[in-house]
């Protein structure tokens, strides 16, 4: 039996040493990567925790500020019961249904009016000619306070109109989903809740209103009352038509699917007509800007060289 020579043993030992070194390097690199990944994960977890803590702090500050503003609205009775009820309906149409929203809006009106009045006091004396008289400064103070009291109502009206536009644009899709759910054999409550769940990422205002209506129906409220409440909160003629159709279908036992399908087609046709009306109004609206900005430029380009030549000839 031949024994391996010294060169073979040396090569074999070198190969083993090389493989061991490579394995050690790989293991060390893997452990380093593992430590780096672990540190990155820990940093991400700490970052998420810090962001969550900051969000909670901001939420608490916002809640305390809102509570103080609402407390001002509760202690200063500047509106009677009828006006507060009307304001509550407007707030519900804008999506604010908390029990202290009316007091919060009243307090916001007082705060904004007081801030504008303070601005009028500070800068009123610097108004030339008028700021020298005390009567005019008092009038500016009163006017600033009244404007500050009115501004939140205009902001609320803007929020209501924007919310109604969002609901109106997504209503045909909601009707199509209701048709699909009723064809599948679902009840009205289940269908409304399913449509609200599907519309949450697409149209949150409509999904919110449908969820509220479904909750009222599940709590045992009369279906006609719950649907009318939804129509009153939204304040759109198309939603009132939908509610009337649903109530009549339940009262007379008529098939609801065909009625919903017809309503969906009517809503889509109304949206197309509205777009066509806006397109038809575009040409008259563009007339005045064209006369003010485009026509003078065209006249200058067309008549400019002739005017320059006439000036040169008469000189």
Automatic annotation (TrEMBL):
InterPro entries: T2SS_GspF_dom (IPR018076). Its main location: membrane. The chain crosses the membrane at residues 6-27, 106-127, 133-156, 291-314. Residues 175-300 form the Type II secretion system protein GspF domain. It is found in: Cell membrane. Pfam families: T2SSF. Keywords: Cell membrane, Membrane, Transmembrane, Transmembrane helix. It is a multi-pass membrane protein. It comes from the Bacteria. PANTHER family: INTEGRAL MEMBRANE PROTEIN-RELATED (PTHR35007), PILUS ASSEMBLE PROTEIN (PTHR35007:SF2). This is Type II secretion system F family protein. It comes from Paraburkholderia kirstenboschensis.
């Amino acid at each position: 039996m031949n024994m391996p020579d010294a060169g073979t043993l040396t090569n074999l030992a070198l190969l083993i040493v090389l493989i061991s070194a490579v394995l050690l390097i790989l293991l060390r690199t893997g452990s380093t990567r593992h430590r780096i990944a672990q540190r990155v994960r820990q940093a991400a977890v700490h970052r998420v925790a810090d962001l969550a803590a900051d969000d909670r702090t901001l939420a608490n500050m916002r809640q305390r500020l809102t509570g103080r503003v609402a407390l001002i609205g509760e202690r200063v009775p500047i509106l009677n019961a009828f006006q507060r009820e009307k304001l509550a309906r407007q707030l519900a149409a804008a999506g604010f249904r908390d029990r202290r929203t009316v007091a919060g809006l009243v307090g916001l009106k007082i705060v904004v009016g007081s801030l504008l009045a303070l601005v009028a006091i500070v800068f009123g004396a610097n108004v030339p000619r008028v700021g020298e008289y005390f009567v005019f400064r008092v009038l500016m103070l009163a006017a600033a306070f009244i404007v500050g009291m009115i501004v939140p109502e205009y902001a609320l009206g803007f929020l209501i109109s924007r919310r109604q536009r969002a609901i109106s644009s997504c209503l045909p899709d909601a009707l199509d989903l209701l048709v699909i759910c009723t064809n599948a054999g679902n009840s009205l409550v289940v269908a409304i809740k399913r449509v609200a769940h599907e519309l949450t990422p697409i149209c949150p205002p409509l999904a919110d209103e449908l969820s509220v209506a479904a909750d009222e129906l599940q709590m045992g409220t009369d279906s006609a009352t719950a649907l009318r409440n939804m129509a009153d909160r939204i304040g759109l003629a198309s939603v009132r038509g939908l509610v009337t159709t649903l109530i009549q279908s339940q009262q007379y036992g008529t098939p609801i699917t065909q009625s919903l399908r017809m309503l969906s087609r009517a809503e889509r046709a109304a949206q197309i007509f509205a777009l066509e009306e806006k397109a038809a109004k575009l040409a008259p609206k563009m007339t005045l800007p064209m006369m003010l900005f485009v026509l003078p430029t065209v006249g200058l380009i067309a008549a400019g060289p002739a005017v320059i030549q006439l000036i040169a000839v008469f000189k």
